[in-house]
Design goal:
The longest helix is centred in the first third of the chain and has 58 residues. Helices cover 72% and strands 0% of the residues. By secondary structure, it is mostly helical. It is elongated.
């Protein structure tokens, strides 16, 4: 065995080096995307976001002042105008009440037909449309009720990755990092890649109208962080697939080279050696009379 081969084999014989690389890779896969996302968001906030934040606060103050004046003058038109409740994405009943009340007001104008959204879409926390967002803005409420659902999906992705890290650490420590870990990494990497593609196809807002009130700009969207994170997850699974492949190759090659021969092979070799060591029969000489 070569000197390099011995060093590589010694590196993989103890689980600690690989376990440390595994843990470090997992931490960096989460920390680096967050740091990059926060850095870009902070830069936008420092240059443009403070002014946008001031305008948002002014708009909310003006709307609250208007509502107060109407209430004081007895001219509150809440019975005729849509007033949204501040619902979480998982509060299906509250969201449905908001939507159907808005739909009844919108349909009463007779200007155009508004196709109602299905119940399962509202229950799942789907976005309700730009016009409803505009009315929520006027009332000083957040325009994106579905942002909570995006946070939930991001948290679920992180928890799944932590579970993969935990199982991988256990498998490396017990020296059983085999097909189960390979398959788990493969499915997780494929799911991360699919989620990354899906998010870029519509979850990330690109319309100026949707971003004009954001104090952190385009980079401040949570789906952007999810794309960064899923990209890091894909790289993580690919890199460690290569590392585990090298580990399996090295162990198979160099361990088999140092392995003692099998018992049957040893017996055959010993028999051959004994046969070679036997003295040749001396020729028989006839006795001379």
């Amino acid at each position: 065995m070569s000197v390099v081969g011995k060093k590589i084999l010694m590196l993989f014989q103890t689980p600690w080096p690989l376990l440390g690389i595994w843990a470090l890779g997992g931490v960096l896969s989460v920390v680096i995307p967050v740091a990059q996302w926060k850095g870009a968001s902070k830069n936008y906030y420092n240059y443009y976001g403070k002014a946008v934040e001031y305008e948002n606060n002014q708009r909310q103050y003006e709307w609250a002042q208007k509502q107060y004046e109407e209430a004081q003058n007895g001219n509150n038109n809440n019975n005729n105008n849509y007033v949204a409740k501040d619902c979480k994405w998982y509060q299906a009943k509250c969201r449905k009440q908001n939507y159907y009340y808005w739909l009844s007001q919108e349909g009463g104008d007779g200007d155009r037909y508004v196709q109602p959204l299905p119940e399962w879409y509202l229950t799942a926390g789907g976005k309700m449309g730009e016009e409803m967002d505009r009315e929520r803005e006027e009332q000083g409420l957040a325009t994106d009720e579905a942002s909570g659902a995006i946070k939930f999906v991001y948290s679920l992705s992180i928890m799944t990755f932590v579970g993969l890290l935990a199982y991988g650490a256990f498998a490396i420590y017990k020296k059983i990092a085999g097909p189960i870990l390979f398959v788990s990494m493969g499915f997780f990497g494929l799911a991360s890649f699919a989620q990354m593609i899906l998010i870029t196809q519509g979850v990330i807002a690109t319309d100026d109208r949707e971003l004009e009130n954001s104090v952190y700009g385009w980079y401040g969207q949570l789906p952007v962080l999810m794309v960064y994170t899923n990209y890091a997850f894909v790289i993580f699974t690919l890199v460690f697939a290569v590392i585990f492949g090298i580990k399996a190759f090295v162990e198979q090659k160099f361990t088999s080279a140092e392995a003692p021969p099998r018992r049957s092979d040893s017996a055959a070799i010993s028999a051959k050696q004994l046969k070679d060591e036997e003295p040749e029969d001396e020729p028989a000489y006839k006795s001379m009379a």
